[in-house]
């Protein structure tokens, strides 16, 4: 029995030894995987766009259609010299005196136009906005001038640019505005039938119906008919109606005639 136990122990030891020797050959270190390459962060484009909105409003009644209002954006010249490097919208042209760049837009029958400008460098950029007045009857134009500043700064979070805008009307520097509005006025002619070109190419008639006041009508009261009072002689009691008096008279006559006939017939009977 002991010999068998010893043989079993030897077999177990040999099995453990064999497994221990074979493990290093079977186990291999997994190869190291290269870390995924991170895509380099692309910096934001070093530019930004800004929109300058300009609105034209027209007040009045019976405004003719087909009118165009022109607004002008220009770089602001300082001390008679052009501001260098001021971006402008597409289509800008040099002014006649060569001191600034100018671009204009037309607005049909009032509304809003947006001037789109792209900036590629930080800085404060100055502009002026005004409206071109036109010789049109019954129209008055807003002659204000807006002084506009666009400030462009670095955006350190994205590596790009930011922009903000403000301005003031005429010389009122204390009141900053961010909306640039021109208010025109149309004065309707006093006589609706008068010719009115008004920029609309002909006369204009208002569709509102005109109600004329009704003429005063004089009412003449009916004439009063006054009847003469009935005669009191030989009449019965006054009732205010001549027809009743006649009936009374006819009845009396008939009664008298009947009485005469009865008397006559009585005499004839006695004689017989």
Question: Secondary-structure blueprint of this entry?
Answer:
Blueprint: H1 2-26, E1 48-59, E2 68-75, E3 93-94, E4 101-108, E5 111-119, E6 123-132, E7 139-140, E8 145-155, E9 160-169, E10 180-186, H2 242-271
Parallel strand pairs: 1-10
Antiparallel strand pairs: 1-5, 2-4, 2-6, 3-4, 6-8, 7-10, 8-9
Task: Give your account of this protein's structure.
- By secondary structure, the chain is α+β, with helices and mostly antiparallel strands.
- The chain has a domain at 48-186: Immunoglobulin-like (Sandwich), CATH 2.60.40.
- Helix content is 20%, strand content 29%.
- It contains two helices and ten strands.
- A six-stranded antiparallel β-sheet has the order 3-4-2-6-8-9, with no helix packed on it.
- A hairpin with a 4-residue loop joins strand 8 and strand 9 (160-169).
- The chain is elongated, with a radius of gyration of 58 Å.
- The chain starts with a helix and ends with a helix.
